[in-house]
């Protein structure tokens, strides 16, 4: 089974870092966030990846093209230009990087990799969010659902303390520190897809996957929700990146399941 990673956007909300590199290459603990995502999949036996490239794609391609040598001990004999490999700490991954266009929307990017997944079930996610998802269990639930697409649903907690105030006296009647959100489940961006989803994505680079394609799949009763109660964090801002790096440095990174 293959995992498809959307990694072609401009990452404008993280512009402090993405002026020079694509967002999936922004680092957490010295490794690009896309590496962390791939390590999670790899932990569950998913070793083949398709990366939908776009903005500054050459950086992603160079990273994986040279990954093996950068993660091995080498002896280089300059007299004859030979290289001897010693201890290697590389991954047993197969990575296909596809140019899906500079300005292509998410639906257009997914449609462009159709030939690389063929008629097989595949996984799909964005290149900017980490999670401690049990992928094996989500695959089991997907198969049992009989749907053509499963989405990981997550209920975020509140960011601020909630106050119940008596508007006549301005006295605080109750206080709750960071309560759960408004009870709405949100799309955590980890999908399991059957090849039938391509029939719901029109041709064209301006198609947004999260728009009509997903709306129509849901209306047809072919979308399943896998409820995730653990950790999930998207890296949308510099503050998010700092928080994720702090978790990693303290050894308290919930997504590190490997």
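Q: What amino acid sequence fits the structure above?
A:
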């Amino acid at each position: 089974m293959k995992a498809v990673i959307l990694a072609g956007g401009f990452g404008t909300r993280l512009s402090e870092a993405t002026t020079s590199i694509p967002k999936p290459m922004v680092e957490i603990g010295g490794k690009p966030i896309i590496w962390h995502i791939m390590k999670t999949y790899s932990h569950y036996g998913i070793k083949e990846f398709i990366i939908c490239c776009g903005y500054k794609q050459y950086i992603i391609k160079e990273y994986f093209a040279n990954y093996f040598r950068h993660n091995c001990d080498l002896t280089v004999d300059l007299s004859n230009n030979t290289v001897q490999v010693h201890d290697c700490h590389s991954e047993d991954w197969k990575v296909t990087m596809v140019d899906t266009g500079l300005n292509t929307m998410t639906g257009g990017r997914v449609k462009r990799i159709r030939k690389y997944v063929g008629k097989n079930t595949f996984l799909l996610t964005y290149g900017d969010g980490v999670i401690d998802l049990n992928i094996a269990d989500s695959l089991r639930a997907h198969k049992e659902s009989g749907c053509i697409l499963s989405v990981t649903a997550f209920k975020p907690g509140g960011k601020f303390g909630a106050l119940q105030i008596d508007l006549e006296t301005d006295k605080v009647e109750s206080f709750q520190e960071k309560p759960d959100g408004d009870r709405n489940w949100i799309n955590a961006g980890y999908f399991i897809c059957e090849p039938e989803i391509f029939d719901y994505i029109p041709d064209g680079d301006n198609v947004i996957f999260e728009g009509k394609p997903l709306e129509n799949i849901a209306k047809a009763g072919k979308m399943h929700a896998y409820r995730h109660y653990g950790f999930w964090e998207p890296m949308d801002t510099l503050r998010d990146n700092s928080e994720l790096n702090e978790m990693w440095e303290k050894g308290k990174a919930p997504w590190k399941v490997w």
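Q: And what stands out in the fold?
A: The first strand starts at residue 2 and ends at 7.
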